[in-house]
Amino acid sequence: MISEAATGTLPPSPEQAHPAASAAAASFAALLGKLDYLGPADIESIRQAYRFADEAHLGQLRKNGDPYITHPIAVAAQCAEWKLDAQALMAALMHDAIEDCGVTKEDLVERFGAPVAELVDGLTKLEKLEFDTREQNQAESFRKMLLAMAKDVRVILIKLADRTHNMRTMGDMPRSKWQRISSETLEIYAPIAHRLGLNFTYRELQDLAFRFLHPWRYEVLSKALNKSRNRRRDLIARVQREVEAGFVGHGLNVRIMGREKTLYSVYRKMDTKHLSFSQVTDIYGFRIVVPELTDCYTGLGVLHQMYKPLPGKFRDYVAIPKVNGYQSLHTTLVGPFGTNIEFQLRTHAMDVVAESGVAAHWLYKASEPSSDMSQRLGTQWLQSLLDIQQETHDAAEFWDHIKIDLFPDAVYVFTPKSKIMALPRGATVMDFAYAIHSDVGNHTVSARINGEQRPLRTELANGDVVEIVTADKAEPNPSWLSFVKTGRARSKIRHHLKTVAQEKSHELGERMLSQALRSEGIATLPSEEGTYQGTWEKLLRFTGSKSRTELLADIGMGKRIASMVGKKLAVLLAETGLKPDALLISTERYASGQEESVSQGVVTLDGSEGLSVQYAPCCKPIPGDRIVGYLGRGEGLVVHADDCPTGKRLLLRDGERFLEVEWADEPVRSFDTTVVVTVTNGKGVLARVASSIAAAEADITHVDMGDEPAQTATDIRFSVAVRDRQHLAEVLRSLKRTTSVLKAQRYKP
């Protein structure tokens, strides 16, 4: 075992006379040199973990002959570069202890506490994963990894450090393992590093994996890049001098660094775009680090004055950061000799995040896990996890596992500004709109999902980017209640409909009670105030309503029958001395010679009644049809054609809830009805039929061609909006004159 002598506090042990042991001690001393951001107590805890790991791995060697402990030290050193806390560094030093050394989780809890033990245990579970890049198993591997990572983001950070060191020393491994380990690095670990914003690690993992997956291609490209670098050294130096002079001339204190595409990114560009190496023009670039955020835009102006920008190659990731928190301004300019050169402008803080991503926040992470920064870190992590799936080939299977096992009842989607929203599985566009704000939901007219126009009832999938389009005059539609999933959306829609319906139902109820009262011989509905105030109070006690407004709204919504309330009101009015008019009774109450049939008076409909009146979808009555009104319980007035089978069944079962209705002389809107058109199947038939309907000045609101394969003669069902029966007749005549139309008729249930 390497004892305290490694740190210079005790005499060396016999083992340290061995050169390999000295190398391990030296590497731990180098690790200690990186821990200046931690306090003495934390450093002492890390030293204790090192001693424990060193003893546990005693006698174990790596493939190159070095003591095994050099690997955990290297992993911890990488974590120290990311400024991870003491618990993470302790776990990094002991990450192989359970797997390889017979140490139990209970041992670690006793020696170092539960948090460190949980980290080591999470890493051990990841070590046991055998990643298989075959489609059927890859999602399961992802699922296991995410389960471990979701508990603590430090697990994957340590794992990435572990994988990076293993890839750096891959040359010592048997060649038979190169393919598998490099493939899973490229397909699994590199994308996770990228989505966490660990840009430097991401690029290094890609290049290392490329080197061992395709050694010959790597070698050829590496030589080509070196030659190109030598040829263009003067050009790059000239651009750097000119840019530095330009910024100095504008009084900007900046740091300019050259940047070169990685070998793997050059290879990918050549492969995907079928280019030769000489055709890849943006290999070289510069990163410019400025003091303040506004200096990014000032610097952009300086650059664009010096060199011409390439159209379409400007990206503002400062105003709209990437999902993983990355911020920079990107612009590609045409430099000397027509060479395209990319520039990135960012502040120092942005540069730290760009290179270290989620790990950059660790310096600012509060000691307690419930701190605000910890909460924000978790949100960023979750956004990153969700974003991985967009570039995974087997995304559907991957997300099935995620939804079932990790987020069993949730779907996660994004606003256009990359804010994440959690909704129940099966949630629709309208649930999303109400989750943002009730005003957004109430005024929604349409939506775009991932840039495409989609219906409001569309169910959302993980990773969808949803954009809601609103209009000031738009209002909730009762049909939304049939597909929304969240209680919030349902309650907001109902609240709004109730408020609007209360007003509409109040108006309808007042008309219905007035007409019912006329049937009892009272010409007008008395006022609530003055002489008849006591009468109304007695009526409200009789009905159990809280107010006149509520009573009238209940009548309009079918909760009270107007004729019954009218009879009681007539009796109460008679007590005050208001006698019924016999002539009015004879004309109103006994209508159409049906002397035994009590009429509630006729309700006149013009289409402006709103939510208190529904036109039955079964028969779709239009002006000119003979109609009847059914006062549904809580539904308001439902209007059926008098020959509608559904209406007839209701009349037999619930006859007392029917009342007489009629059309106004001039309805104020169009009404939907269904037309069935039988056509001979052929090219352009649907277009001709649609043109004929349009020529008759009718609007098509829905087309249904059924699920059956097209036959020689096919029925097409159109929902069309017409003014009245006469307008419908014009539509049918226009259709019958159309080529390929065999028959056109109105659909009747």
Could you describe the 3D structure shown?
- The protein is α+β, with helices and mostly antiparallel strands and 749 residues long.
- It has four domains: 4-218, Hypothetical protein af1432 (Orthogonal Bundle), CATH 1.10.3210.10; 219-361, 2-Layer Sandwich (Beta Polymerase, domain 2); 493-663, no CATH class; 671-746, ACT domain (Alpha-Beta Plaits).
- Helix content is 48%, strand content 15%.
- It is built from 28 helices and 20 strands.
- Strands 1, 2, 3, 4, 5 and 6 form a six-stranded mixed beta sheet that branches. It has a five-stranded mixed beta sheet with strand order 12-16-14-15-13, sandwiched between helices.
- The longest helix has 33 residues, at 487-519.
- The N and C termini lie far apart (90 Å).
- Mean pLDDT is 76; it is low at 1-22, 133-141, 363-409 and 592-600.
Question: In a nutshell, what does this entry contain?
Answer:
By secondary structure, the chain is α+β, with helices and mostly antiparallel strands. It has four domains: 4-218, Hypothetical protein af1432 (Orthogonal Bundle); 219-361, Beta Polymerase, domain 2 (2-Layer Sandwich); 493-663, no CATH class; 671-746, Alpha-Beta Plaits (2-Layer Sandwich).
Topology diagram in text:
Layout lengths: L18 H14 L7 H17 L13 H12 L4 H8 L3 H5 L3 H8 L1 H14 L7 H17 L1 H16 L9 H18 L3 H15 L1 H17 L1 H17 L5 E6 L2 H11 L10 E7 L2 H14 L1 E2 L5 E2 L12 E6 L5 E8 H9 L15 H17 L6 H12 L3 E5 L5 E5 L4 H8 L1 H5 L1 E6 L2 E3 L11 E5 L16 H33 L13 H11 L4 H9 L5 H14 L6 H7 L14 E3 L7 E3 L11 E6 L3 E6 L3 H9 L4 E6 L7 E10 L4 H11 L3 E6 L8 E10 L2 H12 L4 E6 L3
Helix pairs in contact: 1-3, 2-4, 3-4, 3-9, 4-7, 4-9, 6-7, 7-8, 7-9, 8-9, 8-18, 9-10, 9-11, 10-11, 11-12, 12-14, 13-15, 19-21, 21-23, 21-24, 22-24, 27-28
